[in-house]
Write a structure and sequence with these properties.
The chain contains 17 helices and eleven strands. It has about 450 residues and is an alpha+beta fold. The chain folds into three domains: about 210 residues, GAF domain (Beta-Lactamase, 2-Layer Sandwich), CATH 3.30.450; about 90 residues, Orthogonal Bundle (Arc Repressor Mutant, subunit A); about 90 residues. It has a five-stranded antiparallel sheet, sandwiched between helices. The N and C termini lie far apart (about 55 Å). It comes from Streptomyces broussonetiae. InterPro entries: GAF, GAF-like_dom_sf, OmpR/PhoB-type_DNA-bd, Sig_transdc_resp-reg_C-effctor, WH-like_DNA-bd_sf. Keywords: DNA-binding, Transcription, Transcription regulation. It holds the Pfam family GAF. This is GAF domain-containing protein.
Length: about 450
C-alpha cells in the first residue's frame, strides 16, 4: 500500500478485507499476535489499547452531559471554528448518511452531527457528545487514534479494537493550536464502507488545516494591548503570546516569566534571586543581566522594574489548571494539564510549584475515581511509575493488563535496596556538608 494511513489500497475488495481483518482481530485478542494485512498504525494502536486494559467488548462511557457539556464546549478553543466545520462538512455528511464529530485532545466527543438515522444508530454505542473515545477508553478508532499519534488516519471496520464499532468506518485528522502547535482535538467523519477511500482522509485533513488557519486569523485579530498568554506546562521552554507575537523563551527566561505571572504585584531582585537559584554564590549582577536580556526580548513596555513586574495581565496554563481544580472541575483540569511545569527546571520556586500542581491534580484524579482520567495519567510519561494512581486505576478498572502493570510496579518500587559495595579502606571516607539556604529578609513561600 502506497500510503499506510489509508485503510484500503486502490482495487481492494472491501468485503474480503473485512473478513481478513476479523480473523486478524480474533487472533490478536486471543493470542496477542498480529498478522498481515493489518497496517502498522493499526497494529501499534491495538497494542496500546491492550496495554491500557481495553477489552474488545467494552463500551464508551459518557463523561459530560447537559450543563457540564455545554460549559466545557463553550470554553473549548474548537468552539470558535465549529461554524466553519459545519459549513465544510455538513452537506457531505447528510448526503452520504455520515456523521461529523469533533473531539478534544483527550478523545472526548464534543460535537456529533449529521444524518439523523445514522446518529440514532451511533448513539446505541455511545458515539455521542460527552463520551470518551480515546484509545485508552475504547481502543482503536479514528478520532481517538488521530489525537494519540497526531496524524490523520482512517480506520476500516474490524480495524476498530472494540467489536461494537467494527461495522463502522471513519477518518479523522488532528487540529493544532496555531500558536503553540499542541493538539486541540480532531475532526472526524464516521459512516459506512464508502469512507475507506483516500478522498475521505484528504477531506478531513483539509478541514483540519482550514480550522487551524481560521484559528490563526482569529488570534491575529486580537488587540495588542490584550492579555498575554503563557504556555509552560509539558515543555522546557515556555512560549509567550502577546500583541500578535509568539515568543519562545529560554529556560531561565521561562522560569522568570512563570514567577512574574504568578506575582502581578512584582518581585524584588532578592526575591527573584532566591526563587531562581539554588547556588548561593550567584550574584545579583547575574540576575540583572538575565533581566536585561529578557527586557530586550519582550520590549521595555512589557517588563518594568523596582519591583520587577509585567505590565500586562498574563494568563498562564498553570493558572487555568489551578482554577479548574479549585472549582472541582477535575475533568477540565486534566484536559488543560499538558505535562509537568518546565520539567527540566531546577529553580527552587518552580520545583515547588511543579510538585504542588502535579500533586494537587493527581490527588483529585484519585479521589474522582474516573478510570479514563486515571488511565490517561498512568499512561503518560509523568505517570507511568505513579504507584498510587495505578492502584486507583486497578480498583476502578481491574483488567489483566492493569493488574499486571501494578504488580510489576509494586515489585519494582518495594524491592529491598541492593547491597552497598564494601568500602575502599585505602581511601578516606567522603563526607557531605549540608548547608542551609537562607537570605535575610527573603520569603520562602514563593511562588
Amino acid at each position: 500500500m502506497s500510503n499506510s494511513w489509508v485503510a484500503l489500497e486502490p482495487g481492494a475488495d472491501p468485503a474480503e478485507r473485512a473478513r481478513t481483518l476479523r480473523r486478524a482481530h480474533a487472533a490478536f485478542t486471543e493470542a496477542g499476535t498480529v498478522a498481515r494485512p493489518v497496517r502498522p498504525v493499526v497494529a501499534d494502536s491495538w497494542r496500546r489499547s491492550a496495554r491500557a486494559g481495553v477489552g474488545p467488548d467494552c463500551t464508551a462511557s459518557v463523561e459530560l452531559s447537559d450543563g457540564d457539556l455545554g460549559a466545557y464546549r463553550a470554553e473549548h478553543p474548537l468552539a470558535r471554528v465549529m461554524p466553519l466545520v459545519r459549513e465544510l462538512m455538513s452537506t457531505f455528511a447528510l448526503d452520504g448518511e455520515h456523521l461529523v464529530a469533533v473531539c478534544d485532545a483527550h478523545g472526548r466527543l464534543l460535537w456529533v452531527e449529521g444524518h439523523p438515522a445514522t446518529r440514532a444508530r451511533a448513539g446505541r454505542m455511545n458515539f455521542v457528545p460527552g463520551a470518551r473515545w480515546s484509545e485508552s477508553a475504547v481502543g482503536t478508532n479514528a478520532p481517538g487514534t488521530a489525537v494519540a499519534v497526531d496524524r490523520a488516519v482512517q480506520v476500516f471496520q474490524a480495524e476498530h479494537f472494540t467489536r461494537r464499532v467494527q461495522p463502522w468506518t471513519c477518518a479523522a485528522a488532528p487540529v493544532h493550536d496555531p500558536r503553540t502547535g499542541r493538539v486541540l482535538g480532531a475532526v472526524d467523519i464516521t459512516g459506512g464502507d464508502g469512507l475507506a477511500h483516500p478522498h475521505s482522509l484528504g477531506f478531513v485533513q483539509a478541514v483540519a488545516r482550514a480550522a487551524e488557519s481560521h484559528l490563526s486569523l482569529l488570534t491575529s485579530d486580537q488587540p495588542a494591548e490584550g492579555t498575554a498568554e503563557l504556555t509552560a506546562l509539558g515543555r522546557d521552554e515556555a512560549q509567550l503570546h502577546t500583541g500578535g507575537r509568539r515568543i519562545r523563551l529560554s529556560r531561565r527566561h521561562s522560569e522568570i516569566l512563570v514567577l512574574l505571572a504568578r506575582h502581578p504585584e512584582g518581585l524584588t531582585g532578592d526575591e527573584l534571586l532566591c526563587a531562581l537559584y539554588e547556588d548561593e554564590s550567584v550574584t545579583p549582577v547575574t540576575l540583572r543581566a538575565e533581566l536585561t536580556r529578557l527586557r530586550g526580548l519582550l520590549g521595555p513596555e512589557l517588563l518594568a522594574s523596582r519591583p520587577y513586574r509585567l505590565t500586562v495581565p498574563v494568563e498562564s496554563d498553570v493558572a487555568v489548571v489551578e482554577r479548574r481544580l479549585s472549582a472541582g472541575a477535575v475533568t477540565a483540569a486534566a484536559a488543560a494539564y499538558a505535562g509537568p511545569l518546565l520539567p527540566a527546571s531546577q529553580a527552587p520556586a518552580v520545583v515547588r510549584l511543579r510538585r504542588r500542581l502535579a500533586d494537587g491534580l493527581r490527588t483529585a484524579l484519585i479521589a474522582h475515581r474516573d478510570p479514563d482520567l486515571l488511565a490517561d495519567w498512568a499512561h503518560a510519561p509523568w505517570g507511568e511509575d505513579d504507584l498510587d494512581v495505578w492502584r486507583a486505576l486497578a480498583a476502578t478498572r481491574p483488567s489483566a493488563a492493569v493488574r499486571s502493570r501494578l504488580t510489576a510496579l509494586e515489585s519494582e518500587l518495594t524491592a529491598p535496596p541492593a547491597v552497598a559495595p564494601r568500602p575502599d579502606h585505602h581511601r578516606p571516607p567522603r563526607t557531605a556538608t549540608l548547608r542551609s539556604r537562607s537570605r535575610p529578609g527573603t520569603p520562602h513561600s514563593l511562588p
